[in-house]
Amino acid sequence: MPQPPPDWQMPPGVNRGLWDYLHDPAVARNYDAGLAGVSLLDVDLRFVEEHCPRPGRLLDLGCGTGRLLSRLTQQGYGVLGVDLSEEMLTVARAKTGTAVPLLRANIAELNGLRDQGFDYAACLFSTLGMVLGMENRRRAVAHVHRLLRPGGCFILHVHNRWFNVWNAPGRAWLLQNGWAQTESGDRVMPVHQGVAGLTLHLFTRGEAGRLLMEAGFHIREMRPVSLRTDGRLRWPWWFGSLRAYGYLIAAERPA
Fold it and tell me: What CATH number does the domain containing 237 carry?
């Protein structure tokens, strides 16, 4: 693993915990096996196919080991996978082959990609929540809006901050961090695959919606996601904002 730069030289939206996560070969090698059986990994792919039904050009932000790229390439989509982890991209390359373009880049710094070059974009599995700082997340979403053609669709997944009310450590964290303040959604996660200090931003439903609308998107659907195998939240009208584990959101750049 390369030596991390000083904190002041970290890429935008990256702290030391995320740096270690991105540069650990073992994390990338074990990523797919460690998530085997997680229902969201099938639920979000179906959501993408539902809202991006015709083959077109798709930008996969935080593509990881290439699970969305592999699926859509087989269906005739043109894809570009973007990830800041060279280790993840190495696994994705082995999985997808050399015909699938991959780009090592920070999703908050996509100035090198041309305007309106994509029909679709996706940022799945809480990747946006791994970007630290509200301004960095705003920049990432603004880039997506710029990169989509008019009428293009952006699929986003976020974790729900209020789901933490259902366990004692979560309630303590909510109380300690000021409940609904935007930046209070940053939570240091338990040690994950040997990496400590990984911080994840947990969104409220309203915060996620505002972030997209302020960037110029129109929200087609904001679907609450549960831990059920099919991902559906039963009776979403009954305290759904507390019971949802997260949200899958389809947002459109207006024509």
Answer: 3.40.50.150
State the 10-residue block means of pLDDT for the chain, 255 residues long: 81 93 93 91 97 98 97 96 97 92 98 97 97 96 98 98 92 76 77 78 96 98 96 93 96 96
Domain count, the chain: 1
Is residue 97 in a domain?
yes
Residue 196 lies in a domain: yes
Encoding tokens for residue 97?
């082959």
Residue 201, token pair as written in the block = 């931003």
